[in-house]
Amino acid sequence: MNISELSKLSGLNTPTIRYYEQIKLLPKAKRLANGYRKYSEDDLRQLNLIKQAQQVGFTLEEIKSLIPANISNWDHGKLIETLSEKVKEITKMQKMLSENKKNLIQLIETIQNKPQDMSCEDNAKRLMDIYYSETEAPLKTNNA
Fold it and tell me: 3-74 belongs to which CATH class?
């Protein structure tokens, strides 16, 4: 298949495919007599693997170190270790996102539960007082 077909099937644009070749994430394409690149099903699989790895948070440099051009050279121990580390990072991020969500929901409820006769300006001041009273206490204990 040519680069435009590979682009269509992989969902990646042609400059990205060329770049992956350039940085050796993708093996150099064979060339036809007319100079056009010729790609294989393995190249498509490699691009799909790269996309999946990026979707779970791996950088191109990490992917490059994990996915050698020759699959028989994979270091399974390193692969398992790196994947396990990524799972830990995702778990940590989930915990942080859950805490952020909880804080935002609490803020929304605090804003919505303002006294009816309170102006928006006074409610904003009330929220700032609540926020600063909650955030200053931990700062004081950490500095003690």
Answer: mainly alpha
DSSP 69: S
Asked if 67 and 29 count as a contact pair (C-beta separation under 8 A), the reply is no
107 Cβ partners below 8 Å, 6+ apart?
Answer: 127
Record the pTM.
0.63
Q: What is the pLDDT of residues 92-118, one digit of tens each?
A: 999 999 999 998 998 888 888 888 888
Domain spans of the chain, in order of start: 3-74, 114-144
Digit-coded pLDDT (tens) for 19-42: 999 998 998 889 989 988 899 998
Geometric angle at alpha carbon 112, from 111 and 116, rounded to 5°: 105
